[in-house]
Amino acid sequence: MKQFLLWNMIAVMMIGSMSCDAAQGKKNQSAKKVAAQNVEVYYFHFTRRCVTCKAVETEAKKALESLYPTQTKSGKITFKGINLDDESSKVFAEKLGVEGQSLLIVGGGKKIDLTSQGFMYARSNPEKLKAEIKAAIDPLIK
Predict the structure, then answer these.
(1) Domain boundaries, the chain
(2) Could you say which of 3, 49, 54, 77 is the most buried, measured as most Cβ atoms within 10 Å of its Cβ?
(3) What fold is seen in the domain 37-141?
(4) What is the pTM of this model?
């Protein structure tokens, strides 16, 4: 009887460990799928823009082109400036929950808002903005 219980316990433990391995395999596959997706960077703005608003767009675009030249040329990472005063952009802005000037990174089912960092660093410390963009995008493409 003791041997029977011992073998049953061993069998239960083996089956339990196999199911955990299968769950981890699925988790790793979903992480690979996220990394394979494109990353889109959007800068939402209005027609009338201040110097800082223009700098956010310029510096974000420059950062993408210098950090990810291959991905931007291939279209894996894209940058789009979107004028909120255009009627055609209103539906898209609502979809992303945008009401004003915004710098967003969208990819892998995530939306990362870098608006505050953009306005804080675009003119005074563009390298810091570049680092913030890199920190947001790297996990989405790896």
Answers:
(1) 1-36, 37-141
(2) 77
(3) Glutaredoxin (3.40.30)
(4) 0.72
